[in-house]
Design goal:
Layout lengths: L4 E7 L3 H12 L1 H8 L2 E8 L16 E2 L3 H4 L4 E6 L5 H12 L3 E4 L2 H17 L4 E2 L10 H8 L5 E7 L2 H13 L3 H10 L8 H4 L2 H15 L8 E3 L7 H9 L2 E12 L2 E12 L11 E8 L3 E8 L3 H21 L22 E11 L4 H11 L4 E9 L4 E8 L2 E2 H12 L4 E10 L5
Parallel strand pairs: 1-2, 1-4, 2-3, 4-5, 5-6, 8-10, 10-17
Antiparallel strand pairs: 7-9, 7-11, 9-10, 11-12, 13-15, 13-16, 13-17, 14-15
Helix pairs in contact: 1-12, 4-5, 5-10, 7-8
The chain binds NADP nicotinamide-adenine-dinucleotide phosphate and L-homoserine.
The site of NADP nicotinamide-adenine-dinucleotide phosphate has 24 residues, from α1.
Amino acid sequence: MVKEVMNVGLLGFGTVGTGVLEIIEQHQDKLAHQIGAAVKVKKVLVSDLDKDRGNVLHAEKLTDRIDDILQDDEIDAVVEVMGGMELARDYMKQALENGKHVVTANKDVMAVYGSELLETANKHSADLFYEASVAGGIPILRTIVEGLASDRITKMMGIVNGTTNYILTKMSKEGRLYEEVLKEAQALGYAEADPTSDVEGLDAARKIAILGTLGFSMNLDLDDVSVEGITKITSEDLAYSKQLGYTMKLVGIANRVDNKVEVSVQPTLVPHSHPLASVDDEFNAVYVYGEAVGETMFYGPGAGKLPTATAVVSDLVEVLKNKRLGVSGNSVVLPQHKKQLKNKDEIRSKYFLRIHAKDIPGTFANLTAMFHENNISLEKILQVPLNEGKLAEIIIVTHEVSRTDYDNVLERLQNEDVVAEVKSSYRTEGEMN
Ligand code: NAP
Ligand code: HSE
């Protein structure tokens, strides 16, 4: 018998959960038209039943017992927006095993347990969708899996963490201090409960692991992502990079040559003319290069109640529509390729390097010899005197080099007599116009 009402169990009723309820209630007509049945939130799991939640929901819908949702045969789909790792993973797994479809916004779980949960979904002919886990309101997962299904994606570069993009924008455009802007990002609700995962790059690493897995159709684990955050970036780095025509962004990079891939997150300099350079404040963007389509970029809000809830409810529409059409479980496409990671000789990039060197005859000859001996050609050089002529600030941008050659030259520089200190080093992507 065709159901007239599809029931949803909501796990979590915080920022995203309240947004999900709001969108479901406000868009009933549209949802019913698309799904062919009304959508009702039947139960909502929270941890604190006594918390004041205003009048947004009947108190009898709230529960702190997961079985009220997982064991309720009338519930068709479970929306997991409570966050955390092990418990959220267990609840999603049980829901799938009980024949319920699952939608989640949880990048932490999907980056680590995604393949396991997708296999569980596959085994139980259930759907598991997670569009909101990467770049909040930007429908980037659907774009990669469906919109570019006919193409071969070779590169993705994402500004996928709103907190760090907000901090870098305010530091570089307004000259503000890191600590002060981080507090502001927390107050605005962009940062995770513990912002370490934002500023140290882990949140972005989870998202680029998910993007890489889908874009390259190969299981990429969080451990495969090399990660560096934004905490060491100084105002001098921002000023000199700007002077040389670059904008600093925290970028998640996934690229492949043949079927060998590299996935990383690091502060990256992109030319001012690069599409990612103008993505400011808390906004996110994902640049995707496909062999046939060429360059594309997807831009929008990466977090926040309604943008994230929109992605969640759009997944829910698909899940419920699939259920009504009797095609649930067909959306899970397991990875096509075996994982092959590039080694350091195969990872190629340009680099920006800032060093303090003795301002004496022969310094430059010494430096250029070291780069030459390591097969590194230089694209740009800037020298500024420091300390009344005793030291010079030298900024170098290399041409594209292998990570092996670059690490070798870094080690040489650190042990070289004319070099007082290697102040900073950043990956550089994109061509100057
Ligand atoms: P939140 O505001 O902290 O809300 C979490 C909700 O889950 C609360 O209602 C909490 O209950 C409930 N909860 C937490 N642990 C629970 C437990 N063990 N048992 C039962 N209920 C529990 O979190 P959020 O910002 O909405 O984020 C939810 C998820 O979406 C996370 O995975 C996050 O990474 C992801 N996400 C968030 C955003 C965003 O902009 N916020 C964007 C993209 C993805 P109480 O209300 O009783 O405390
Ligand atoms: N803390 C995350 C960010 C929230 O700053 O982008 C969205 O995942």
